[in-house]
Amino acid sequence: MPIHEYTALQIKKAVVGYGRAEKQQMQEMVRIILGMAKPAAQDAADALGVAICHINHLPPARSIPPHPSTTGMKT
Question: What CATH number is given for 8-70 in this structure?
Answer without folding.
Answer: 3.30.420.10
